[in-house]
Amino acid sequence: MSRGSYRPRKPRGRSRVGERFEAEVGPVAHGGHCVARLPEPESRVVFVRHAIPGERVVVEITEGTDGDRFWRGDAVSVLSRSPDRVEAPCAYAGPGKCGGCDFQHVAVPAQRDLKTAVVREQLVRLGRLDASSPLVAGLRVEAVPVPGRPDDGLRWRTRQRYAVLPDGRPAMRAHRSHELVAIDDCLIAAEGARPVDADGPAGPDEVVARGLVQHDVTAAGRTHAFTVAADGFWQVHPEAPRVLVEAVLDVLAPQPGERALDLYSGVGLFARFVGEVTGARVVAVEGDRGACQHARTNLSALESAVVECGPTDRVLRDGFDEPFDLVVLDPPREGAKRAVVEQVVDRRPRAVAYVACDPAALGRDVAIFAEHGYELTAVRAFDLFPMTSHVEVVALLSKGSLNRPRFSAAPLRGAALG
Ligand SMILES: C[S@@+](CC[C@H](N)C(=O)[O-])C[C@H]1O[C@@H](n2cnc3c(N)ncnc32)[C@H](O)[C@@H]1O
């Protein structure tokens, strides 16, 4: 995972980096660390990596000065260990080593418990939902095993981005650092995973031809082919397209004749499956020109599909002013934000399926939807990034009585309804 955007802050006061403290590890927090509080005289919150809630550890400070409100640190020795602690399967995981994974030291089912806690916390703190509501309390991050593999959290990444050392060896970055750590093998990369930006062996569901990749996705009983640029966006877990399409169809319950908007559509994954069911107008909006071109090809079998290329907020503001029954919203990590959310609710959709790769951004956007009467009415979360703190969430936002499809009495299936 690239840490290319990391920029160290200007130091404020005496550095505490390298100092060690004993600490009780508190709850997990968004970002792959746990929260510990150092008593006086330090009186500091420390975000501790390589720890598990409930443990007593020695924390070595990795970032922090006297002037900082909180510090960051690594658990460099464990004084009382959690029953969920395991030996990291990867030799490159641990304090000061590769920063690609956050939870190699945690048993895989317990990793999902940590992510569940994080998603719930973001929905409560930022999304302003009630922690005791069945939607929040009933949420569990679901396992998504790779077919034919044990559920061990390894060998799932179909693409892996490596840095290259001057001597040509592949490397990954240390956590929040530009420092490169040489690695022979990344255990979360699928066998034969194709390094991005390089020709190489294709994964099992891929055909590579002149910089293009074709993915066949079978979901909800239908199979569609998607052409993607070899370096373009495509979900990296081999089961992700199927699982996310099925979750989106499940919560939206699209009906024949319903008009759909697929925002941040990439190469048209959701538009293709939703449009197949509705048989009506589908507008895919995507900012990347290459992805737009591929979306046009991938959606060409749908007579009423249109691809609008440009930033979502601008396309929605200037492009077309018409109502839509269904919206799929799959923004990048920063979320959709107010301008887009308000453009979406202006179209008065019956149902919005929000596919989120950052539960904090989801929480912030859920709060904006709520200002406009759109409530979170179903939510599921999937462990599509084992060993890391990342998690994918599919949420349904709908407005009271608008929640029912116009064309049939088909109930929403699967997800918990609030
Ligand atoms: C998380 S990906 C989702 C892609 C697609 N829904 C899929 O599942 O394959 C987010 C997509 O949003 C696009 N994107 C990012 N910022 C955008 C913006 N401001 N306006 C339109 N598209 C944007 C990216 O190019 C990327 O294709």
Descriptive overview:
The radius of gyration is 22 Å and the shape is globular. The chain is α/β, with parallel strands linked by helices and 418 residues long. Mean pLDDT is 91; it is low at 196-202 and 403-418. The protein starts with 19 loop residues before the first strand and ends in a 20-residue tail after the last strand. It is built from 8 helices and 21 strands. The longest helix has 18 residues, at 108-125. The protein has helices at 108-125, 134-137, 240-252, 269-278, 289-298, 312-319, 337-346, 359-371; strands at residues 20-29, 33-38, 44-49, 56-63, 70-80, 141-143, 157-160, 163-164, 170-173, 180-182, 189-195, 206-209, 212-219, 222-229, 260-263, 282-286, 305-309, 326-329, 351-356, 375-383, 392-398. Helix 3 crosses helix 4, helix 6 runs parallel beside helix 7 and helix 7 crosses helix 8 (359-371). 21% of the residues lie in helices and 30% in strands. Bound molecules: S-adenosylmethionine. S-adenosylmethionine (SAM) is lined by residues 233, 264-266, 269-270, 286-288, 291, 311-312, 330, 332, 357.
